Amino acid sequence: MLPNIAIIGRPNVGKSTLFNRLVGKKLALVDDRPGVTRDRREGAAHLLGLDFNIIDTAGYEDEDARSLPGRMRKQTEMAVAGAELALFVIDGRAGLTPLDEEIARWLRSSKTPVVLIVNKAEGKAAESGILESYSLGFGDPIPLSAEHGDGIADLFQAIRPFVEGFEAAAHDDPADQNAPLKLAIVGRPNAGKSTLINKMLDEDRLITGPEAGITRDSITVDWIWHDAHLSEEDRLDGIDPERRVRLIDTAGMRKRAKVNDKLEKLSVADAKRAIDFAEVVVLLLDATKGLEAQDLRIADQVIQEGRCLVIAINKWDVAEGPSALFNGIRAALDDGLAQVRDVPLIAVSAFTGKGIDQLVSAAFQVRKTWSQRVPTGQLNRWFEDAIEDNPPPAPGGKRIKLRYITQAKTRPPSFVIFGTRVDDLPESYRRYLINGIRKNLGFGGVPVRLIIRSPKNPYHDKE
């Protein structure tokens, strides 16, 4: 396990900039406006040989606990309570504020050790802020510039005692069926993505509420799901019923024409990166709104990226005419996503928990399908039968010869067919082959790639 280190401070002191600096990439959204970060997010940090888990938190504000800022503050308090160390960040140029002093009082009452950081410390403008920070009672502050990297060596020395002694987590084998399932939840705003994850975890891990667009960053949370219905065959294959899942909550994805705000554009881009990172993507629909064109666009994007897709209809507990609704969505999906048939469709309720086990089980199953490799003999027998049952056409009287097939890779399953005059092969025949791969080789419901090439040997088709 890696130690958890939480970054805390009032809004706009540079917490997310420091988070990005420590993880070595721009994972957290950064903007001049305060309050960009709302949920706490985690990342693997590397600092001069030290490995630890860094947690970026929302700006700590003194607001009613029922308000959005109040719910954000609760998330921050939970992050600090579960951390081995807190990095308390203040703005050196602004100097101490009453809110800084309130946060300091709260931190002194907590059991979590604190390292004080004076950010934006480059130049003389921060000198008074550095001197004022001694009054907070956390010992010598660390002057730092998260944006430029100044003071990182001093930060290393300060956190080193808290990190040493922890062993770095072993890297997971992506081909291992016991490796954590990377499961992203996507959909339009207010579909209930964060509420669903909270229900899975059985805790208020993510901020939720009636306000659309609360989630901005893509938030990753580790979870263990018990697969009570694991088959005996899978158990014999060594698959653990305690299945590890890496849940990824994302910002709501609206139609592009409606996205004007800079932060929302960044949030949607962040959600698209989450799709790239995921193995299985759950597209969450709102049962009270049905299937809309934007849902199909999101689904198509998932398929184009080669990721597994599972579609869940949320708010099933308040759906009107559920049977007709389910059948209507199923028909619309088969028509709108013709390139991938039999995508799992599951009714869920983030409020009651209905369908969650079925949803997660389907996600593990499609990942297994997505990761499988077909034995060479079985692949060749299918290919020969497919060609015999429906030979390629002969445009202009010239035969198109498809000679052999190989599976190039998995995740997504990708096949290469070699032949002659393949540029003349019609798209309809290519679809015939892809449909056959799905139906006869067990790749239903996942994206399949098919590449058709001519041999490199220029004399290969000379007879």
Describe this structure in words.
Residues 3-167, 181-371 form the EngA-type G domain. With 463 residues, the chain is α/β, with parallel strands linked by helices. The protein folds into 3 domains: 4-163, P-loop containing nucleotide triphosphate hydrolases (Rossmann fold), CATH 3.40.50; 181-371, Rossmann fold (3-Layer(aba) Sandwich); 376-453, K homology (KH) domain (GMP Synthetase, Chain A, domain 3, 2-Layer Sandwich), CATH 3.30.300. 33% of the residues lie in helices and 20% in strands. It has 13 helices and 15 strands. The strands form 3 sheets. A 6-stranded mixed sheet has the order 2-3-1-4-5-6, sandwiched between helices. Strands 8-9-7-10-11-12 form a 6-stranded mixed sheet, with helices on both faces. The model is unreliable at 28-38, 165-174, 211-217, 257-268 and 457-463 (pLDDT under 50).
TL;DR of this structure?
With 463 residues, the protein is of the alpha/beta class.
The CATH architecture name of the largest domain reads: 3-Layer(aba) Sandwich
Tell me, rounded to a whole number, the average pLDDT: 81
Count of structural domains: 3
What percent of residues are in strands? Answer: 15-25%
Output the radius of gyration: 26 Å
Helix content class: 25-40%
- Within CATH, the superfamily of the largest domain carries the name P-loop containing nucleotide triphosphate hydrolases
Characterize the largest beta sheet: strand count, sense, and whether it forms a barrel. 6 strands, mixed
Q: What is the ordering of alpha helices and beta strands? A: EHEEHEHEHEHEHEHEHEHEHEHHEEHE
Strand line-up in the sheet with most strands:
2-3-1-4-5-6
Shape: elongated
The beta-strand count equals 15
Q: Number of helical segments?
A: 13
Structural class computed from helices and strand pairing: alpha/beta
How far is the N terminus from the C terminus? 63 Å
Write down the CATH topology of the largest domain: Rossmann fold
- CATH domain class name of the largest domain: Alpha Beta
Stretches with pLDDT under 50, minimum 5 residues: 28-38, 165-174, 211-217, 257-268, 457-463
